[in-house]
Design brief:
It is an enzyme of class 4 (lyase). Keywords: Decarboxylase, Lyase, Pyrimidine biosynthesis. It catalyses: orotidine 5'-phosphate + H(+) = UMP + CO2. Pathway: Pyrimidine metabolism; UMP biosynthesis via de novo pathway; UMP from orotate: step 2/2. This is Orotidine 5'-phosphate decarboxylase. The protein is an alpha/beta fold. The chain has a single domain (5-270), classed as Aldolase class I (TIM Barrel, Alpha-Beta Barrel), CATH 3.20.20. The protein is built from 13 helices and 8 strands. The protein has helices at residues 5-16, 33-36, 41-53, 70-85, 100-106, 109-112, 124-131, 149-153, 163-174, 189-198, 216-222, 235-238, 248-270, and strands at 20-24, 59-62, 91-96, 115-118, 137-143, 180-184, 204-206, 230-233. It has an 8-stranded parallel β-sheet with strand order 2-1-8-7-6-5-4-3, sandwiched between helices. β7 (204-206), α11 and β8 (230-233) form a beta-alpha-beta unit. It starts with a helix and ends with a helix. The chain binds ligand LLZGTKA7. Ligand LLZGTKA7 binds next to β8 and α12.
Length: 271
């Protein structure tokens, strides 16, 4: 039987002593000038970033939004294969779901990636083809990091629970194969704390530190289920050397190492 995503992630966290998810969001307007003329600028950018950050990466998290054109999809494929060549799992932040028949097509995204983010809005059948891929990770959007995350997710249901609490309860039920996690933003530290109490067994992907100003300490304190979870930074790592042109990737490597060190200090105090 193949190892589960969370077992592989645990191995990776142990080997690198890192819980950093490096977000690969290669915004074409921000990548260095000297890479823009390449045939696949995003792939050229990501390859250099991976070379400098992989030692500090528990996982890479490309966001599908940054690859939504023909060259982008080719770049994404190369990026995933290259990350695997460095033994780093890849979590595709795609936030997908649709009626079951359509989600079966979306689930093909997991042929390449090791894990995916999904949108619970359409309910269980819309996620089943992802959930059925038992060796792959499925992170359900629960309490997102954006300012409007509270518009719907904080609404109180007639049962007295909030929408995000219901999502967490459902995700726990959907976790029949032990392959489900939650996305909970670092900008919502109180929700992080209460969700950890509500679903102690579900690992969290925690975005929103760095550029979004979230609470990295709370991300570490509450993001992990039995030591497994991820704290993501995208722009804060990959564009740390935006002003440096040729040495941009080195700066990304330093930023990833610094973040790993900082999160590990919180991990030590959380133990
Ligand atoms: O609630 C969410 C869900 C996903 N994201 C994604 O994570 C990264 C964060 O990027 P930063 O540059 O570190 O802010 C990005 O891909 C988002 O789309 C999130 O931020 N919040």
């Amino acid at each position: 039987m193949p190892q589960s995503f969370f077992d592989r992630l645990r191995d990776r966290i142990d080997r690198t002593d890192s819980v950093v998810s490096v977000g690969l969001d290669p915004d074409l307007s921000r990548i260095p000038d000297h890479l823009r003329d390449k045939e696949m600028p995003r792939w050229a950018f990501n390859r250099r970033i991976i070379d400098e950050t992989h030692e500090h990466a528990a996982c890479y998290k490309p966001n599908a939004a940054f690859y939504e054109d023909a060259e982008g999809w080719r770049s994404l494929r190369e990026t995933i294969a290259y990350a695997h060549g460095k033994d780093v799992p890849v979590l595709l932040d795609a936030k997908r779901a649709d009626i079951g028949n359509t989600t079966r097509r979306y689930a093909a995204l997991l042929d390449d990636a090791d894990a995916i983010t999904v949108n619970p809005y359409m309910g269980r059948d819309s996620l089943q083809p992802f959930l059925d891929r038992s060796e792959k990770g499925v992170f359900v959007l629960c309490r997102t990091s954006n300012p409007g995350g509270s518009d719907l997710q904080d609404l109180e249901l007639s049962s007295g629970e909030s929408v995000y609490e219901r999502v967490a309860a459902l995700a726990d039920i959907w976790n029949e194969h032990g392959n489900v996690g939650l996305v909970v933003g670092a900008t919502a530290p109180e929700e992080l704390e209460s969700l950890r109490e509500q679903v102690p067994d579900l690992p969290f992907l925690v975005p929103g530190i760095g550029a979004q100003g979230g609470d990295a300490e709370a991300a570490v304190e509450y993001g992990f289920a039995d030591g497994v979870g991820l704290v993501n930074s995208s722009r804060g790592i990959i564009f740390a050397g935006e002003d440096r042109e040729e040495t941009f990737a080195k700066a990304a490597g330093q930023a990833a190492r610094r973040l790993k060190k900082r999160l590990n200090q919180y991990r030590e105090t959380a133990e």
